[in-house]
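From the pipeline queue, job 12 of 40. The input is one protein chain; the requested action is below.

Action: predict structure.
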Amino acid sequence: MMERRIILLILSLILGLGIWTQPAQAQKFGYIDSEFILNKHPDYKLVQDELTNLSNEWKKEAQDLEQAIKEMYANLKAEEVLLTEEMYQERMTAIKEKEKAAIAYNNRVFGLNGQYYQKQKELLQPLQSKIYDAIDRVCKRNNLVVLFDKAAGPLMIYTDPRHDYSEFVLEELGIENK
């Protein structure tokens, strides 16, 4: 009876180890370069052009505000000797308020969650969705377990070009790489 238990214990250990020691199936990994894909996509150029135009408009407005402030300072300096202390302080207060308005404008437009950032997000979202859907299809078709983005930062030190699936994503999007 004791021998039988020992034999069963040994058999179960051997079977258990057999399950754990089976070779793991090879996992397929790949990478893409999202910057490369974006730059090849024709819609990205349109988005960039629209953002550039908006940015130039907003920068011009910001420069106009700065120029107005400089002119206000120049006028104050030129008329300084003719102004009473009270008039000088009034003009200085007006200049300070204009400076605050310029700073507020720059923050509202170009700040962390400013209009430029929001517009960029709004314009890029549909394109990013298209690219993500193409990436999803490429991964499923090629049985990839993990796909890295080379453009996302210094996450990969070495990449073998055999595993670059950027061309497949461009193909999935119907874009020829020239």
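Job complete. The chain has one domain: 24-172.
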